[in-house]
Structure formats: C-alpha cells, structure tokens
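Troubleshooting entry. Yesterday's outputs looked truncated, so today I'm pasting the complete records for two proteins to confirm everything comes through intact. If either block looks cut off, that's the bug. Protein one:
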Amino acid sequence: MEDYQIYLKNLLEKILKAQQEQKEIENINNTLGSICKELDSFTEKIIKASDNGGELSQQDSDRIKSLNKEFNNNIKKLKKAKTTSDI
C-alpha cells in the first residue's frame, strides 16, 4: 500500500509540474503573439519607406530592434520550456 501511495504522490507531482510548465509556455506564446502583433503594425511604414526610398524614423527602428530582441529571447525560453515539459 505504501508503494502505491508513493507512486500516486510522484505522479501528482509530475502532473503539477507539467501544468506549471504548460502555463509558462502559454504565457510565452501570449507574449510572442503581442510582439508579432506590434511588429505587424510596422509593416505599412516599412513598405512606404521602401517604396519611397526613405527610412524609418529612429524611434521606429529602435522599437523594431527591441521587439526583435524580445522575440528571440522568448523563442529561446519557449524552446527551453518545451524540452523540459515531458511527463
């Protein structure tokens, strides 16, 4: 009986850990979605600048670079979280 209780305890701990990891993955995915949405908002400005031979404002360029860095960091977090989320 004691072995069974230990088995159930270990199984519950694994399930709780997996749920926490899934929440972390969900949060990362939400963050990535927000980043992509904001990056998408620059598409029209980029096209206009390209068509007119102009450049984006420094503020827009800096924001895009910042979002790109944040995106890459979140992708790394997502890969790490997905490799550890096995039951």
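Protein two, checking that the full record survives here as well:
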Amino acid sequence: MVEKVSHTAVTASTAPFTLNGGTYHANLSGTVAHGIDTPELQQLVNGSFVSVDPPIRFLATEVGGSKAAKLAAGTYRWRIPNGHNVTVNIIAQ
C-alpha cells in the first residue's frame, strides 16, 4: 500500500504526522495568498519544527504543482500561515 498523508481545506498548521522515510511527492492546491509566508513542510528536530532541507515550499505561482524530495523517517507538519486555504498531500513513491 502506498503511504499517503492528506490534509483538506487547511488554514493553519496541520497536526503532526509521521512518515516512514523515502522518496515523496508533495502537492498543493487551493488559495495561496500573495505577500505573506508560503506554506511549507517542516520536520520535528530536537523538539522544534524546522524547514526540511532542501525546503519544500509552495508559492502562489506553484499551486497545482508537485515537488519531489527524499525525506527521513520522522514527524512532520505543514506550516500554513494565516491567509492561505489549501489542500496538501504527500505521497510515497
């Protein structure tokens, strides 16, 4: 079974979720407001959520797009600043 985590109509940071590690595709749809911080995937490291390296962020011009990344097993969340209304998915490949 393919590992997939989805969050629908998100307007704030998501609840933490775990990933098993591997190669993932992240995609985002909805409304990304201009002029404020972008939605991004963060990993829990030493008790704090930090940007993954390299960062997975979506600009308003990237809505509907997909980004691939190799991610370690761990706890993650989507940081969604106020002003956005998005649906985000992360799917193992």
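Both blocks look complete. Sanity check on protein two: The first strand starts at residue 4 and ends at 10.
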